[in-house]
Specification:
Layout (H helix, E strand, L loop, with lengths): L3 E4 L4 H4 L7 E5 L3 H5 L1 H4 L6 E5 L16 H9 L9 H9 L3 E5 L13 H23 L5 E3 L9 H8 L4 E3 L4 E2 H5 L9
This protein binds zinc ion.
Length: about 190
């Protein structure tokens, strides 16, 4: 098993790393990841793209790349230009060596729900919605899942998504690509 790298916004710098030594995981369905797909596809290793089904772009995409946290902030005010389109996700589903996994529907901050009952309900509703959206858009059921914000809620989230058929779960155990680039990790997913 190769060590697993965690990548959010893609950049030229990342392409210069010895990427084939790692399993590559890409969080959040950012358009910058798609923008480098021609290079990434040639790296002889598994690539997993974790998509939040609510955060997909249906119009024009951005011409400059911003960090994931900023992309989420923009999307929450209605601008999804920093995310992939459903058509691009569909191509990733079909591409050799590439896998598309779930990353929640609405990329919820579950710790913001103070009561356990509300957290559990939100987690279940979000998981059901994500699976319904994967079916609606792609007729596809993912089996890999990455916890939004790498938040596992002490095992509770894993128990929920396993019940919904997810078998390969990813979180904080991954190596942030920033540690190889010697730049600070984005605050959003710490
Ligand atoms: Zn995320």
């Amino acid at each position: 098993m190769k060590p697993v790298l965690m990548i959010h916004a893609m950049s030229e710098d990342i392409l210069r790393l010895p990427l084939a030594e790692y399993t590559l995981t890409f969080d959040d369905g950012l358009y910058s990841q798609w923008a480098f797909i021609e290079h990434l596809i040639r790296v002889p290793t598994d690539k997993v793209f974790f998509v939040s089904t609510k955060f997909l772009c249906t119009g024009e995409q951005a011409s400059t790349f911003i960090p994931s946290s900023a992309a989420h902030d923009k999307a929450r005010s209605g601008n999804y230009e920093d995310f992939m389109t459903p058509a691009q996700v569909q191509q990733l589903i079909n591409a050799p060596g590439c896998y598309v996994g779930g990353h929640g529907h609405a990329h919820l901050k579950l710790r913001e729900f103070p009561r356990l009952i509300d957290r559990s309900q939100a987690m279940i509703q979000d998981t059901v919605m994500m699976l319904a959206e994967f079916q609606r858009m792609f007729s596809y059921t993912p089996t890999k899942f990455c916890f939004p914000y790498n938040e596992t809620l002490d095992g509770l989230y894993a128990a929920v998504v396993r019940r919904y058929g997810f078998t390969d779960l990813y979180g904080r155990e991954r190596i942030p690509v920033e540690t190889l680039l010697h730049t600070p990790s984005p605050l959003s997913d710490l």
